[in-house]
Design goal:
Chain lengths: 265, 122
């Protein structure tokens, strides 16, 4: 039996309200993603992007096609691992050793992923709780993403974080894909000192962001221990495990001292 | 078999190599992170990261307290006048913390100049 409202072809007010709410929600999601996109383009994307110039040039030197160079940025999404991968190929290193070196250099992604995910998961039943979304969010994790997420996400309401994060990271990826391909075709055209300077862009950005965001004693101690222990660890445990040892010892010591200081009188 | 030989073979080999030797060894840590981050089944709304920058309530309170008349403000103000670092040092530190862009430009200029200086002549 057809209702009178349907017979008169009037819109159902409840479904109209739902449609408006849906429209508003999708618009605000779009706005948040756009805001993340624009924020990334305002500065961080160019820092990461310029540092990936070298990856494009390395890929060309080992005879990889331009598509593989861009794909390396999109799927590996870790500058040091990409440099190790292409550098290992250029040096003629055996593939299992390259894979092991890439794996070792990427260990840092584990704690970063573990600290970024809780900021984005949201309540039960939200989009951030699905396995597919969590794997996507994890795939986007990199040093710059971790630093910027730790700084930008906590002040935002939980439901706004995921669209903002996705917009932000996709802008980073887009710029990095473009700069990788620029590096691929501009290899040799850039003076060596500028190319060398670009390699330092990410470490400098990372260090300054940590300094700008440091608040408590543990933050400052972690920075100081990192700088102080790194050369010592290189001498003692070798260049393969030096960063891991420095992070483990220096980070744990900084955390422990900070905690003792907070617990003290 | 070295990577160089595989890379020059062309075709789809570079892509396969990229996935097996580059993508999988790095992605495994992220996937492991997803599983390990599950932890206890609770919504971690109050995670260990505290708000920073101008949104930080503690910082806002400190600024409001510092804005009161007759009180020193800025880094180290709560440590008393005798233990505060000299003005020029404080200024440089303040600039560094305020402007990441300025810091990056200064550091990059330094590294490029250093590379230029160390580069072999000719």
């Amino acid at each position: 039996m057809v209702s009178r409202r349907a017979a008169l072809s009037l819109p159902d007010p409840r479904s109209a309200r739902e449609a408006t709410a849906l429209q508003t929600a999708s618009r605000s999601t779009r706005d948040l993603a756009l805001r993340g996109f624009v924020d990334a383009l305002s500065f961080p994307a160019w820092v990461v992007g310029l540092s990936l110039f070298a990856v494009g040039s390395l890929a060309r030197e080992v005879g990889f096609p331009a598509g593989a160079a861009v794909l390396s940025t999109l799927i590996m999404w870790a500058g040091p691992a990409q440099v190790i991968f292409f550098g290992g190929l250029a040096a003629g290193t055996a593939l299992p050793f390259i894979a092991a070196a890439v794996a070792l250099s990427s260990i840092r992604l584990l704690p970063m992923t573990m600290s970024v995910l809780p900021m984005l998961r949201g309540a039960e039943g939200s989009a951030g709780r699905s396995w597919a979304m969590q794997l996507l969010v994890a795939h986007y994790v990199a040093v710059t993403v971790w630093v910027e997420s730790s700084r930008r996400l906590p002040p935002m309401p939980m439901e706004e974080r995921l669209p903002y994060y996705l917009g932000f990271v996709n802008a980073l990826l887009l710029v990095c894909a473009i700069t990788t391909i620029c590096g691929y075709y501009l290899v040799g055209a850039m003076p060596m000192p500028i190319a060398a300077g670009l390699l330092f862009l990410t470490p400098v950005f990372f260090t300054l962001s940590l300094v700008a965001g440091a608040r408590v004693l543990a933050d400052w101690l972690a920075l100081a221990f990192g700088f102080g222990l790194a050369p010592l660890a290189t001498q003692l445990v070798g260049k393969d495990l030096d960063l891991l040892a420095t992070g483990l010892i220096g980070g744990s010591a900084a955390y422990g001292i900070g905690r003792l200081r907070r617990a003290g009188p | 078999m070295t990577g160089e030989i595989v890379a020059v073979q062309g075709g789809l080999w570079p892509y396969l190599l990229l996935i097996v030797v580059g993508f999988l060894p790095s992605e495994i840590w992220r996937v492991l992170g997803v599983f390990l981050a599950q932890g206890p089944r609770r919504a971690r709304r109050d995670h260990r990261f505290r708000p920073r920058g101008r949104h930080d309530p503690a910082r806002r309170r400190r600024r409001q307290a510092a804005d009161q008349p007759g009180r020193a403000s800025g880094p180290g103000a709560d440590r008393g006048p005798l233990r505060r670092p000299p003005g020029r040092l404080r200024g440089a530190f303040f600039l560094l913390r305020r402007s990441v862009v300025g810091g990056i430009l200064a550091a990059e200029a330094f590294f490029v100049a250093l590379a230029w200086w160390l580069a072999p002549a000719g």
